[in-house]
Write a structure and sequence with these properties.
Organism: Lactuca sativa
Shape: globular
Oligomer: single chain
GO molecular function, one term: UDP-glucosyltransferase activity
Helix content: 40-55%
Distance between the termini: 12 Å
Strand content: 15-25%
Bound molecules: uridine-5'-diphosphate
CATH topology of the largest domain: Rossmann fold
Low-confidence stretches: none
Number of helices: 18
CATH architecture of the largest domain: 3-Layer(aba) Sandwich
Function: May glycosylate diterpenes or flavonols in leaves.
InterPro entries: UDP-glycosyltransf_plant, UDP_glucos_trans, UDP_glycos_trans_CS
EC number: 2.4.1.-
């Protein structure tokens, strides 16, 4: 039987590329003899971890990685936010991506090109070459509805001035203080870029969302209703890389020590704090967390990274942890109960039986990972759409404790030690008493969704049938 080939192009951010590659493996595993995938990778000098990650994935059967030759970075007067830089930089790869896809499709016709939320410029390439184009959306269905809703608002309407915003993909009105930073400081954070990407989502032949029906029934149903006039929605998640950085990160020996430390802690005793691939905290915020942790008195594992020194760069692990960052004597006093580290193998940590709760920035991959391993979250959003994810998890779905819903890395208020202490206590005590149980139930549903005849399995089957019919 003839094999259909699809191509995928994703933004070179950890939170976008990793689920896109996992999606590729899921496509292949669903029908091992029918599909193969070409993943076109774009390098970004500011994202060195991405190269290590790609190297570790190059030997998956039926997936080939094709490195797109780099183009120059746009001059600094062309952008004033990460999203603008990224969108222009990716868009500048269009001619070379077109050439690459043209060459690919001379040997075998492509059944589809999958682009992600910031790669919509590649829809033009798919149109030029007559390749059906699909969107792979690595954030929740609720947020997909949110950005699509923004496209319906008059260009000069200020979404942040209303007390709350009614968005059809959320059951409850969204309080204005939980809007993403790009809605509040529109010019500084590239609001119009988010809208112009979202405007193009409808041009695709289908939207694949990394979620599952049982987690976001309200949002998925709202997207599928006719008023939106969207292409078919395929909730195929949770798509998670269960091996994670344990396989590819250069600091694996230190990671092993972290896991060994966890091996010595009692079951469900450790609170884990981690703020995503781009998250870092100011020194004054670090001190408040330390005070809150000490007052709460739980064992802790804290992934702490130093704010980037240059614009667009990512935070780094501290070379030497300077004790003056913390309250006097904090390191000595907590030596028996706490471990502070840099980049962690997050999935391996969440899978460890010692972990009892997760203070998270609420990136969508982190949320899906925590659900998958039944670890309740306390919300501490920082950037991107995380305030909305925190709102959804805590208020809409009742699956998280709130530390804050409105915290932000840029221009946010300080989260005080008493909020940290309260949130951690609530988290580790299991919220309202039922939280741990609820998260466990959702975890079981996430596994069922992926099993034969589960909701995500069926969505994947529908998608693959369409892809096969395209060639
Ligand atoms: N991650 C990790 N170790 C870290 C920080 C992040 O393994 O110290 C992984 C995490 O498991 C997740 C991804 O990086 O898979 C982050 O994606 P998410 O969507 O949660 O947040 P983003 O980094 O995109 O804001």
């Amino acid at each position: 039987m003839r094999r259909a080939e699809v191509a995928i192009i994703a933004t070179p951010y950890m939170g976008n590329l990793v689920p896109a590659v996992e999606f590729a493996t899921r496509l292949i595993n669903h029908h091992p003899d029918r599909i193969s995938v070409a993943i076109l990778t774009i390098s970004m000098p500011q994202m060195p971890l991405i190269e290590d990650y790609i190297q570790s994935r190059t030997s998956i059967e039926h997936i080939r990685f094709i490195q797109i030759p780099p183009v120059d970075s746009p001059p600094s007067d062309q952008y004033n936010s990460r999203i603008e830089f990224t969108s222009i930089y990716i868009g500048n790869h269009k001619p070379i991506v077109k050439q690459t896809l043209k060459t690919l499709s001379t040997s075998v016709p492509l059944a589809g090109l999958f682009v992600d939320m910031f790669c919509t410029s590649m829809i033009d390439v798919a149109n030029d070459l007559n390749i059906p184009c699909y969107l792979f959306f690595a954030s929740p269905a609720a947020y997909l509805g949110f950005v699509l809703h923004l496209t319906t608002l008059p260009a000069n309407e200020s979404v942040d001035s209303a007390n709350e915003l009614i968005v059809p993909s959320y059951a409850k009105p969204i309080p204005s203080n939980t809007l993403p930073t790009f809605c509040i400081k529109k010019d500084e954070f590239g609001y119009s870029r988010f809208v112009s990407h979202a405007l193009r989502y409808k041009e695709t032949k289908g939207i694949i969302v990394n979620t599952f029906q049982e987690l976001e029934p309200y949002s998925i149903d709202s997207l599928s209703s006719s008023y939106m006039d969207l292409p078919p929605i395929y909730p195929v998640g949770p798509i998670i890389d269960h091996v994670g950085p344990a396989k590819w990160h250069s600091n694996r020996s230190r990671h092993e020590k972290t896991i060994e430390w966890l091996d010595h802690q009692p079951e469900l005793s450790v609170v884990f704090l981690c703020f995503g691939s781009m998250g870092s905290l100011t020194p004054v915020q670090v001190r408040e967390i330390a005070k809150g942790l000490e007052r709460a008195g739980y064992r802790f594992l804290w992934a702490l990274r130093e704010p980037a020194k240059e614009n667009l760069k990512l935070p780094n692990d501290y070379e030497h942890l300077d004790e003056s960052l913390f309250p006097d004597g904090f390191i000595d006093r907590t030596a028996e109960i706490g471990l502070i580290c840099g980049w962690v193998p997050q999935v391996s940590v969440l899978a460890h039986k010692a972990i009892g709760g997760f203070v998270s920035h609420c990136g969508w991959n982190s949320i899906l990972e925590s659900i998958s391993y039944s670890v309740p979250i306390a919300t501490w959003p920082l950037y991107a759409e995380q305030q909305l994810n925190a709102f959804e998890m805590a208020r809409e779905l009742g699956l998280s404790v709130e530390i804050r819903l409105d915290s932000r890395d840029k221009g946010g208020d300080l989260v005080l030690a008493e909020d940290v202490e309260r949130g951690i206590r609530e988290l580790m005590n299991g919220g309202d008493g039922k939280l741990r149980e609820k998260v466990k139930e959702m975890s079981e549903m996430s596994k069922k969704a992926l099993m034969e005849n589960g909701s995500s399995f069926r969505a994947m089957e529908d998608l693959i049938n369409i892809l096969l019919s395209n060639v």
